[in-house]
Amino acid sequence: MISGFEDITTATILLIIVAGFAAGWIDAVVGGGGLLQLPVVLMIPGISPVQALATNKMGSIFGTATSSLTYYKRVKPDLRTALPMAAVALLGSLGGAVVATILPGSVFKPIIVIALVVVLIFTAFKPNIGELTALRHSGHRHYVVAVCIGGAIGFYDGLIGPGTGSFLVIALVSLMGYAFLEASAKAKIVNLATNAGALMFFAPHGSVLWGVGLVLGGANMAGGYLGARTAVKQGNKFIRVVFLVVVTVLIIKLGADVWNENVLGA
Predict the structure, then answer these.
(1) In angstroms, rounded to a whole number, what is the distance separating the alpha carbons of residues 36 and 9?
(2) Which of 27, 69, 111, 208 has the fewest other C-beta atoms within 10 Å?
(3) 27 vs 220: CA distance, rounded Å
(4) Which of 2, 184, 194 is nearest to 86 (CA)?
(5) Would you list the DSSP string of 2-36?
(6) Cα 63 from Cα 147, distance rounded (Å)
(7) What angle, rounded to 10 degrees, do the helices at 49-75 and 210-234 form?
(8) CA distance 24 to 36
(9) Residue 132 neighbours by CB distance under 10 Å
(10) pLDDT tens digits, the chain, 266 residues: what are they?
């Protein structure tokens, strides 16, 4: 059986594979695949929340690596912006993972839900946003804004995680002026770094279930490859629609978490 979990069933393994593929596809297009993938990983008998988070990151890094490469070959995103963002995001993710051991993510979830609602309204009522790249900043300011976005969202990914790719996409579209396709391509490179940063924290502590992570990673790779190709083929309008759907699901999921933790748990 996988990673010593003797009670894991064939049906659960198949569900992990299906969820990993679907999550890889969603992540490649707009991010947010962890909403589907993590709950399935948590179904493994005997797994702890920390092991689930770490193993989820292990699987996701395969998908983000595959979609990053696919986007790079087909979209040719500007690495002069993406790589500094990724480097700072990796450090931010490490910092967020450290803070997560001190402060629970539930402290920040109400703020995140409000931010997502604002993002949803903003995107829904601006139908032309993200159709074309029209950069808002130039020169030194462009790179400063980029690394600030990378650091802030990297920290969020290490601390809480759900919707990191979606936050990256909307930040690149609304704050920097990229089209959705270009934003998705850059977001995957940055998301790859945030996954790596979290794994750098989790792996030395023995939290990763490597067998499960490799199975999840293989499924994520397939989904990430197909998702990136679909996004490139369908273009900005398709990505915008998927983005709105994923953000709506994020709001419902995190909103339910806040309700359960602060109202029902009171």
Answers:
(1) 19
(2) 111
(3) 9
(4) 194
(5) GGG-TT--HHHHHHHHHHHHHHHHHHHHTS-THHH
(6) 23
(7) 30
(8) 10
(9) 12
(10) 454 455 678 888 899 999 999 999 999 998 888 888 888 888 888 888 788 888 998 999 999 999 999 999 999 998 999 999 999 999 999 998 888 778 776 677 787 888 889 888 988 888 888 888 899 999 999 999 999 999 999 998 888 777 788 899 999 999 999 999 999 999 999 999 998 988 888 888 778 888 899 999 999 999 999 999 999 999 999 999 999 998 898 889 888 888 887 776 65
**Other C-beta atoms within 10 Å of 143: how many?**
15
CA distance 56 to 218: 12
Contacts of 111 (CB under 8 A, 6+ apart): none
Nearest to 20 by CA among 243, 262, 224: 224
CA distances, 196 to each of 26, 128, 129, 157 (Å): 19, 34, 31, 11
- What six digits make up the tokens of 173? 């579209």
* Residue-wise DSSP of 159-196: HT-TTHHHHHHHHHHHTT---HHHHHHHHHHHHHHHHH
The C-alpha atoms of residue 160 and residue 158 are separated, in whole angstroms, by: 6
- Separation between Cα atoms, residue 142 and residue 232, nearest integer Å: 25
Q: How far apart are the first and last CA of the chain?
A: 40
Cα dihedral 56, 199, 88, 65 sign: negative
Name the pTM for this structure: 0.86
Smallest CA-to-CA distance from 85 within 193, 162, 176, 174 is with 193
